[in-house]
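Give me the fold.
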Amino acid sequence: MTATTDLSHELQLRYDRLRQIVSELESVAVAFSGGVDSTFLLRVCHDQLGQQAVAVTTRSRSFPAREVAAAADYCRQAGIRHIVSEFEELAIVGFADNPTNRCYLCKTNLLSHVRRIARREGLAQVAEGSNLDDNGDYRPGLTAVAEQGVRSPLREAGLTKADIRQLSRRLGLPTWDKPSFACLASRIPYGDTITAQRLEMIDQAEQFLFDLGLKQVRVRLHGRLARIETDAEGFERLTGDKAVRPQVYQALRRLGFTYVTLDLLGYRSGSLNETLGTDSTIE
């Protein structure tokens, strides 16, 4: 199946531009999380470059094992060479303090790690999957991408998240409608210390909610309070079934949370960035 059927002229031009950009890379290590963007980028890289496109996934405390397994499954089924490498964010100086540039610290070290793998494997370039929409939010990680000399083919081609989902669907990618995901450290407010225990609590809480059938979930940690963000379908599931609420409460209590709340605004990407540049004092 090709991605050329029923596309607008403008989207076809962007897709063609992407393929041209990728072809010029010659060989590439793709920082591969298994999400919508990086899966689409990896597919295009593999289509254009064959075995000169290698997926690199880092296994860490802030990246759930289920995501690593899904990334490995995709590469195995697609016949793409896949390298899984251990990476420890908590060893990065300053990361655990959770400053507002936490993502910059992590991305700088992570991309340096991937670059070392690329050099070892004789690959000319490193590419990552940020898209045009990422320019509109607080994304200190993009500074690290630029500093590391890492390519962002999806942004370079002017592709948005909606474009990528549409093209992914045309290509038959299983991730075309996969919910967005961000590292588990993004669930902890800036300034609150990141620990292995807190990351594990968040991971297990989100896994419990996924097992209940929710699809889009964030469990934000505020001290010992769990603030659940979910989409409209998940919101209805948690509020419409009286048996579910105590089940969720008891499960999260067992994980170490004292209070469990449901955010009335529901899921939104980067909600903890809403506090940046504001005075949080209430009089």
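The CA atoms of residues 66 and 255 lie 19 Å apart.
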